[in-house]
Specification:
Length: 397
């Protein structure tokens, strides 16, 4: 495509998406008003909105439910190769307290849409529905296939959402973009730390609080173990795209009354480790620490449970998705987003593990997700639709 044709296409897409601003806003508000707090989820409420939209445009789609009302919807445009998947999650975290208004009745103020899920991840879904409209209207020009998925359960691990779609429903693609990383479209998520959740149980013996020597205090035994784990040395401590590894003591539970020696104490750890490290190494190091503390502090006894161990993921910085995101963000914004590493986990992990080239990229402020009075810029949603349309056309035409 020569420069003149390219400029004409960019101008056409800009004008088209600008004309769809009201639709993007209306769809975002409808999706917010569908109360899909997870738990319990009830993503079917949002799926019905997407379904009506797909039906109005005659976009083929399927609905997948692993559990009743925990619904996913997948629509497709075009039939050939390559295929580009964009997945936005339809569940949201619980609203919490101190909202200015009802978090499930969207409102607009100063160029922003407010409501639970506006930034994480329903505004992005509305933008992508506008992209789907454009691509459907230009379907005859597509050689590849565009797949738009509204998925369940992202906020609680994706077992009923994208994992289910990939493992049990035959969903696959060559490329995927996950618009769930915020950073106002100035960051491309190309690598994510490993995520290791552990639970340690300290076993003691219950007794009367006035005679603690008759029992074994599970809390007292847990304290030196946690102090030792706090000093854990990671094998890999630096990476060009990442902040250093982290270890967080997320919860500790024990005891029922001050006059009872607690027999059980449970602590949960969240460890984020770098791509060149191994979760198994960290687990073995903690097991060694447990054995040392048991030997030094009899009769201390501990169990270690692995709640989750998601491996780090990396895609090459020079992969086609990064190049196209950079190219088309430049054409809309005048600046290029930077490849970065994420400490948090997105569903790009599950996609990469299936051999799909997947990156994270999207609108929204980093501080808005899960916050009280969550909101997103309307202009960003429209600009995101412009960029994603140009990316899809570049890959699929």
């Amino acid at each position: 495509m020569n420069n003149s044709s390219s400029n004409n296409l960019v101008s056409h897409v800009k004008n088209y998406m600008q004309s769809k601003e009201k639709e993007i806003v209306d769809l975002t508000c409808k999706l917010i008003n569908a109360k899909t707090e997870n738990p319990p989820g009830d993503e079917i409420l949002a799926v019905r909105i997407v379904e009506d939209f797909f039906q109005s445009l005659q976009i083929p789609y399927k609905i997948f439910e692993k559990t009743k009302n925990r619904a996913n919807i997948v629509g497709s445009i075009g039939n050939g190769l390559p295929s580009l998947l964009v997945a936005c999650h339809l569940d949201v975290v619980p609203a919490g307290d101190d909202w200015k208004r009802n978090p499930f009745e969207a409102w607009i103020e100063n160029g922003r849409i407010y409501g639970r899920g506006s930034s994480d991840n329903k505004g992005q879904m509305a933008s992508m529905m506008a992209v789907a409209r454009f691509l459907k209207e230009n379907e005859s020009k597509l050689k590849g296939q565009f797949i738009l998925a509204g998925v369940a359960d992202e906020e609680r691990g994706s077992a009923l959402g994208l994992e289910y779609l990939l493992n049990e429903c035959g969903i696959k693609a060559d490329f995927a973009i996950i618009p769930d990383v915020a950073h106002n479209m100035q960051l491309i998520d190309v690598t994510e730390k490993g995520t290791l959740f552990l639970e340690i149980t300290s076993h003691g013996k219950q007794a009367h609080g006035s005679r603690p020597e008759m029992g074994i205090n599970a809390i007292w035994n847990m304290i030196p173990l946690l102090e030792r784990i706090k000093q854990l040395k990671f094998r890999e401590v630096s990476h060009p795209l990442h902040t250093p590894p982290t270890l967080n003591l997320g919860s500790i539970h024990s005891g029922t009354s001050p006059n009872i020696v607690p027999a059980v104490c449970k602590a949960q750890l969240d460890i984020r480790y770098l791509p060149d490290d191994l979760g198994d190494n960290i687990i073995n190091d903690i097991k060694n620490i447990i054995r040392e503390v048991e030997a030094e502090c009899p009769p201390a006894r501990f169990d270690l449970k692995i709640i989750s161990n998601q491996m780090p993921t990396v895609v090459p910085i020079n992969n086609p998705l990064v190049e196209l995101i950079s190219k088309h963000t430049l054409s809309i914004f005048g600046t290029r987003p930077q490849p970065k590493g994420m400490s948090g986990a997105t569903v790009t992990k599950q996609l990469i593990q299936k051999g799909i080239t997947a990156v994270g990229f999207g609108p929204g402020d980093e501080t808005e997700a899960h916050a009280t009075n969550e909101s997103i810029s309307i202009k960003e949603l429209v600009d995101f639709a412009k960029i994603m349309t140009l990316i899809a056309l570049d890959i699929l035409s």
